[in-house]
Amino acid sequence: MKRRSLLEKVIDRIAIGAGVSVFLSELRESYAAVSPDSNATTKPPRVGTGGLVSREVTESRYVMTYEWTDRLQRRWRSTFALDRTAYSEAAQEHHGYLGGFETAKTSRDVERFAARLAAADLMTEDAARPISRTARLERAIGFVRSLGYTTDIDSKGVPDYVRTAEETLVDGRGDCEDLAYLLIGILSNPPFEYRTATVIPPGHMLAGVHGDDLPAVYADTPTLPGNRYVAIESVTSRPVGSFQDDPVLLIYNDGIEYVDRSAIAEATGDVLRNPSEFQTIADLRG
Q1: Cα–Cα distance for residue pair 224/204, rounded to 1 Å
Q2: Distance between CA 77 and CA 52 in Å, rounded?
Q3: Within its chain, how far is the Cα of 87 from the centroid?
Q4: Is 60 exposed, middle or buried (0-12, 13-18, 19+ CB in 10 A)?
Q5: Taken in order 213, 168, 250, 240, is the CA torsion positive or negative?
Q6: Which residues contact 68 (CB under 8 A, 6 or more apart)?
Q7: Is the pLDDT of residue 232 over 60?
């Protein structure tokens, strides 16, 4: 009911010309209201057997081992440790969509992980061979895409839950916004230090990277509306710059980079009629 009331408020404000500011406000703040009780989120879910993520639990830390293959068919392995207190503290933070984006970019744990990712073990070629900028980017994208996709209903029992990047790393799974935030956080830190944005089409979320920051091989990659950012999918195998053919509602970095007011009004109306539309469904992987 809170969700429907929220959407009705957005529709009303759009009708009087204030829709974008309300849309931003609700993206930033609303999901604390539907997040699970903190006691239910301070421990990570069980990692399934036979997957690409394994987790060792010690008295004070979670130690994850990740294995994945990138689009260039290079196979990688990396380990990362996170204090259990850091996980539980992160899990008790409630963020809206924009807060989750901003937190991922400034997280010290994501900064540490980006450094670990840069030192990942190459399992298919000579490890001494220099890694190109393109290979570094594809390695990061491949890592995030290798994590399990799960809906918030299935993993948390609520319609919407915004994971912190720390939760996503330890849980080894997330939905479209969780995985997009993690990718954005990684690409915002060394060795990349890209200018990044969150890109919101209806019912989905993408990472955006400023086109001027990408390796030269992506020079002719199509840009998003506004002609500055390039889309990167975090849950599908689409090439850099390719994404589902939907209108882009909003591109947000430190402020609004692009907004489509008419598309926001139309999309919000669709969600009001069917609130499940705001939850990315599993067939986005197709």
Answers
A1: 15
A2: 10
A3: 17
A4: exposed
A5: positive
A6: 52, 75, 76, 142, 143, 145, 146
A7: yes
- pTM, two decimals, is 0.82
Q: Are 64 and 77 in contact (CB under 8 A)?
A: no
pLDDT of 240 higher than 90: yes
Structural contact between residues 54 and 46, judged by C-beta atoms closer than 8 angstroms: no
- Angstrom distance (rounded) from CA 148 to CA 279: 16
Q: In the Cβ-directed half-sphere of 10, how many Cα atoms lie within 13 Å?
A: 26
Q: What pLDDT does 155 receive?
A: 83
pLDDT above 90 (res 81) = yes
Average pLDDT value over all residues in the chain: 80
What are the extents of the domains in the chain? 2-280
The backbone torsions φ and ψ at residue 71, rounded to the nearest 5 degrees and listed phi first, read -65, -20
User: Token pair of 83, please?
Assistant: 């204090």
The total of other beta-carbon atoms located within 10 Å of residue 171's CB is: 25
Q: How far apart are alpha carbons 257 and 250 in whole angstroms?
A: 8
| Distance in angstroms (rounded) separating the CA atoms of residues 134 and 223 | 18
Q: What's the mean pLDDT in 176-183?
A: 96
Residue 182 confidence (pLDDT) above 50: yes
Instruction: Return the closest-CA partner of residue 277 out of 13, 232, 266.
Output: 266
pLDDT at 244: 79
Burial 20-48 (b: 16+ CB within 10 A, else e): bebbbbbbbbbbeebbeeeeebeebbebe
